[in-house]
Amino acid sequence: MNASQISNETVNARYRVLLTIWFVMLVSVGNFFLIAFFVAPKKGFEPEPNAALSITLAVLALAAVALSFVIKNKMLARAQAERSFERARTAYIVAMALSEMAGILGLVAHFAAGERRFFLWFIIAALALLWHKPRRGDLIIAS
Questions:
Q1: Which string of b and e fits 48-79 if b means at least 16 CB within 10 Å?
Q2: How far apart are CA 95 and CA 128, in angstroms?
Q3: Which residues are CB-neighbours of 46 under 8 A, at least 6 positions away?
Q4: Contact at 8 Å (CB) between 65 and 104?
Q5: Is 5 helix (H, G, I), strand (E, B) or coil?
Q6: DSSP output for 18-49
Q7: Which residues contact 49 (CB under 8 A, 6 or more apart)?
Q8: How far apart are CA 98 and CA 63, in angstroms?
Q9: How many Å separate Cα 134 from the centre of its chain?
Q10: CA distance 74 to 108
Q11: Among residues 15, 37, 56, 142, which is most buried (max CB within 10 A)?
Q12: pLDDT (tens digit, 9 = 90+) per residue, 31-74?
């Protein structure tokens, strides 16, 4: 085996690990939705609709998703300039975590604020995560 084959195998292995993390985070957003959909508060403990809290959580969710794109782009550019796979991996993981945050806030909005349109948070989180699917090309450039 020559150095380029080892490097290619290393990139492929690292890519598979990142892809696994991405898939698990996407599944977790689906699980959050299922929890919100099937788990109902006990009678007498239903939260009263709280518009202020719902709006605050919606703004936080949208800000987190928007920030995920900005941070990922800046970190990937730096990773590619420095040829650092670790920075590229960090860029993807931070972006995925911020995207998943929208789903977590949807869960909070449903249970704490009585939000009836909680599914929108999960749609936003899932779309952002789909957009942040790791790209092998980014990892090759950064390696």
A1: eeeeebbeebbeebeebbeebeeebeebbeeb
A2: 9
A3: 114
A4: no
A5: helix
A6: HHHHHHHHHHHHHHHHHHHHH--PPTT-PPPP
A7: 113, 114, 115, 116
A8: 9
A9: 11
A10: 30
A11: 142
A12: 999 998 898 766 766 677 788 999 999 999 999 999 999 999 99
* Average pLDDT of span 119-125: 93
Q: At what angle do helices 51-82 and 119-131 cross, to 10 degrees?
A: 10
Spatial distance between the Cα atoms of 23 and 101, rounded to a whole number of angstroms: 15
Amino acid at 75: M
CB 88 within 8 A of CB 18: no
